[in-house]
Amino acid sequence: MTRTEEFQELRPLLFSIAYRILGSVSEAEDAVQEAWLRFEGAPAEPRSTKAYLSATVTRISIDVLRSARVRREHYVGPWFPEPLLTDPYEDPARAAELADSVSMAALLLLERLSPLERAVFVLREVFDFGYPEIASAVGRSEAACRQLVVRARRHMAAGRPRFDADREERQELASRFFDALREGDVAGLRDLLAADVSMVGDGGGKAPQLARAVMGADNVARLLASVLPRMARIDVSFEPHELNGQPGAVFRDRDGRVLHTLALDVLDGQIQAIRLVINPDKLAHLGPVADAWAISREFKRAPRG
């Protein structure tokens, strides 16, 4: 097998590691590409290509995350990860860990960890790497890595997200939600929302976004039911699509360009949170991006009722 073939075989794993560390599709893809360049230029064959590339992409991701965290401190409004339509890496033995770890809720929780804690936690808890491999990847002793994992687990434990285990029930609830959304059915929406549901948007100062989080089932239901019919009048449509392993949808303008995504957190038969990613910089990997400001102006002119 050539180096190119070995790399292509491992690419899904490398991307999945980088994305969970970085929370960014574009940065994860760049990290994987940089790992390839280093692998291609390495003078000697590594003893284990998987170990070498996993360690390389992890180190690159840690460095990128350190600089990214500074930028995120000055981010305008709430910061959400870039939406991921499909996780390219599959491992039936780790299916539950992989699904939970890629959710918006889990990635936001990982933001509380230091870059080193985050990397070690991802390698150990999500991908089940052994401590010798982790120690080599991050340049710390095995004992230090064990301590990092313990600290990371402690930080994650209190707020660790839980989701309905039954995928079919979750998707059925999401289907009812989107049906009610299309119909502008306030009562139907309210019935599906948790009493303390929150709806938050991430525009990053580069697109119209909610001035603040909308809280409570009644407020969220009324807002959604009033906004969607008017959006339909200006030919904004949406297609349900799994996002970050959870139910969601991609909204598009009349020309099919991506306007924003909407992701749902579902637990105990109710929707606990609704997160919108509107920042165009976080949508480019999904295809051509709509002009959200122009659509906002058109929306304001659209008739009510």
TrEMBL record:
* Domain (RNA polymerase sigma factor 70 region 4 type): residue spans on this chain: 105-156
Q: Does the keyword Protein biosynthesis apply?
A: no
Q: Which UniProt keywords apply?
A: Sigma factor, Transcription, Transcription regulation
> Record's Pfam families?
Sigma70_r2, Sigma70_r4_2
Q: Which residues form the RNA polymerase sigma-70 region domain?
A: 7-69
Report the leader peptide range: none
InterPro entries recorded for this chain? ECF_Sigma-70_Domain, NTF2-like_dom_sf, RNA_pol_sigma-70_dom, RNA_pol_sigma-70_ECF, RNA_pol_sigma70_r2, RNA_pol_sigma70_r4_t2, RNA_pol_sigma_r2, RNA_pol_sigma_r3/r4-like
What is the annotated quaternary arrangement, including any partners?
Interacts transiently with the RNA polymerase catalytic core formed by RpoA, RpoB, RpoC and RpoZ (2 alpha, 1 beta, 1 beta' and 1 omega subunit) to form the RNA polymerase holoenzyme that can initiate transcription.
- Belongs to which family? Belongs to the sigma-70 factor family. ECF subfamily.
Query: What's the name of the protein?
Result: RNA polymerase sigma-70 factor
Ranked from the top, the taxonomy reads: Bacteria, Bacillati, Actinomycetota, Actinomycetes, Kitasatosporales
